[in-house]
Design a protein that fits this description.
Elements: H1 2-6, H2 14-27, H3 31-42, H4 52-65, H5 78-87, H6 91-99, H7 109-150, H8 159-174, H9 211-230
Length: about 230
């Protein structure tokens, strides 16, 4: 505004406005700024979130600003701008371009942009597929973890089967036949059931007697019976 006010153009034309705007930009820029801009244009890198076509438009726009800055560094030529476009693409895309057997000299800038747009489309589709697979795997893993929490952990031993013998044992004990203690011993001759050492309710119960004890008991009984008969 100050430049336009101090040195107003004689005619209000587009050319005079362009001259005044260039003078305004040059008042806040240096030759080093022009040189740095050209070097940045020679080795650009396309950001991931910028489309191929937008990236090329931005290169061309910035290259047009070089002439507005003070200094003598020339802007990029058409071939240099095409090379800058190629150099700014991801390395995998450039490797595929080389593997296709073509060269930059055989491609126009428009054809080069179209090739990299196709690579961009394939990369976007691949990324979307990977995200779907990741979500699907995450959902399956979450469902598997939820199912494992619902089912109690079982050891190698089947507790349900181990309980069955106990139940059968209780049922079997309830079906036992009770022997009258005044009855003759069903296992031995010569004494009542209440006197048998195998009777758990016998006050003198000592478990299952040995063969010697049983033989002594039978011998004593037999001797008593013989003495009675003799007298």
């Amino acid at each position: 505004e100050q430049i336009l006010a101090d040195d107003p153009p004689d005619d209000q034309t587009e050319a005079s406005f362009d001259t005044a705007l260039r003078a305004f930009v040059a008042s806040d820029a240096t030759e080093e700024d022009r040189y740095d801009l050209v070097q940045q244009l020679r080795s650009p890198k396309k950001p991931r979130n910028v489309a191929v076509q937008q990236f090329f438009y931005r290169l061309r726009e910035l290259n047009g600003f070089v002439a507005w800055l003070p200094g003598n560094e020339p802007p990029l030529t058409a071939n240099q701008l095409k090379q800058a476009l190629y150099d700014g693409m991801p390395s995998t895309w450039r490797e595929r371009f080389v593997d296709s057997g073509t060269t930059l000299a055989n491609k126009t800038t428009a054809e080069l942009c179209r090739y990299f747009r196709k690579q961009e489309s394939k990369a976007s589709a691949k990324q979307a597929e990977n995200e779907r697979n990741q979500k699907r795997n995450s959902s399956r893993s979450s469902q598997k973890n939820n199912n494992s929490k619902r089912v109690p952990h079982r050891s190698g031993r089947d507790h349900s089967q181990s309980k069955r013998p106990a139940s059968s044992s209780r049922q079997g004990s309830s079906n036992k036949i009770t022997i009258d203690p005044d009855m003759d011993c069903p296992f031995h001759a010569g004494h009542k059931w209440s006197e048998c050492f195998q009777n758990a309710k016998n006050p003198n119960h000592r478990g299952i007697g040995s063969s010697q004890e049983r033989s002594a008991k039978r011998a004593k009984t037999s001797t008593g019976s013989s003495t009675t008969r003799s007298s």
